[in-house]
Design brief:
alpha+beta; LolA/LolB/LppX; 301 residues; Lipoprotein; outer membrane lipoprotein receptor (LolB), chain A; signal; 12 strands
Length: 301
């Protein structure tokens, strides 16, 4: 049961981390804040993306849809889809998720609901309510989860990447601004809207180097982490971004090539500035997931 709960909540949190921009780059953000200016049809890629970064940061909210596919060779191979609304500064989110493992499962895709509010993530646990005293929602206090994960392997499985989740689309643009080979590939259409297509890539160390969960490591731990990643065959992160005529990103694709296949994410943004009216689920229908896991581990011991 522990592994079932850990997998369900861990995969859900991973998907939200991707949607929220798990690989936000603060160095790129600083660069974006000081470069470029708006206007002009012949802007260089860095100038255009800098304007998009600034406008997106100021918008503070958008409607989102995302798909993430994991290849069959990875443990959680399959597809996750998400849609809803997110806001940033502060981060809030209300999304519906659908998870479809490769090979399928009885009853088809598993759908759930996730809410992020006040540094707490709520996951609709659906059919797994028997482990939560009949309550429908599982609650993650992000600060408490980060503290507990430091010395507990199961908690680390569930909370992996929580330190890096508080990112937004503007910081994904900042990530791309840190690429040494950003280029403009021309114009196209996204959902019937004209958009300019930009592309760039980042090496593993550049892509992961500013993540909080990485910067908190010792030099020896970082060296070991990057060595293991290189052994896994992951070499780079490939970014494609489409920016509309109002200088907002309307589509972002990220591909991570591994020996087991390519991890693909594709996110579409719309209605920038739309109100992100996010509410927490009823307290009397909510269980503390970390407490549930602690109790299960105590029973095991």
């Amino acid at each position: 049961m522990q592994k079932g709960i850990a997998r369900r909540t861990g995969v859900s949190l991973m998907a939200v981390a991707v949607l929220a921009g798990a690989a936000g780059c603060q160095q790129g953000a600083k660069r974006a804040a000081g470069d470029g200016s708006g206007g002009g049809a012949e802007r260089a890629p860095i100038q255009a993306l800098t304007v998009a970064y600034k406008k997106t940061a100021a918008a503070k909210s958008a409607k989102v849809t995302m798909s993430m596919s994991m290849p069959a060779g990875l443990p959680d191979g399959g597809e996750t889809k998400m849609s809803g609304v997110m806001g940033w500064d502060p981060m809030v989110m209300d999304v519906t998720m659908s998870e479809s493992p490769l090979g399928g499962r009885a009853g088809g895709a598993e759908t759930s609901h996730m809410v992020w509010l006040d540094n707490t993530v709520y996951v609709d646990m659906g059919k797994r309510t028997e482990a939560f005293d009949g309550k429908r929602w599982g609650k993650f206090d992000l600060r408490a989860a980060a503290a507990e994960s430091a010395d507990n392997a199961l908690m680390r499985q569930v909370t992996a990447g929580l330190d890096d989740m508080n990112q937004d689309p503007s910081q994904q643009l900042a990530m791309l601004l840190g690429s040494p080979d950003v280029k403009h590939l021309g114009s196209g259409e996204v959902d019937g809207e004209r958009a300019e297509h930009y592309q760039g890539s980042l090496g593993v160390e550049a892509g992961l180097g500013s993540l909080k969960s990485v910067t908190n490591l010792t030099a020896e731990q970082r060296e070991k982490l990057f060595a293991n990643i290189k052994k896994s065959g992951v070499k780079s992160y490939d970014y494609d971004v489409w920016v509309n005529g109002q200088d907002y990103p309307v589509k972002m694709d990220v591909d991570i090539k591994t020996p087991q296949g390519t991890i693909k994410t594709s996110t579409r943004y719309s209605d920038y500035g739309a109100k992100a009216a996010v509410q927490a689920p009823p307290a009397d229908d909510t269980a503390d997931v970390l407490k549930v896991l602690r109790d299960l581990m105590a029973q095991r011991d």
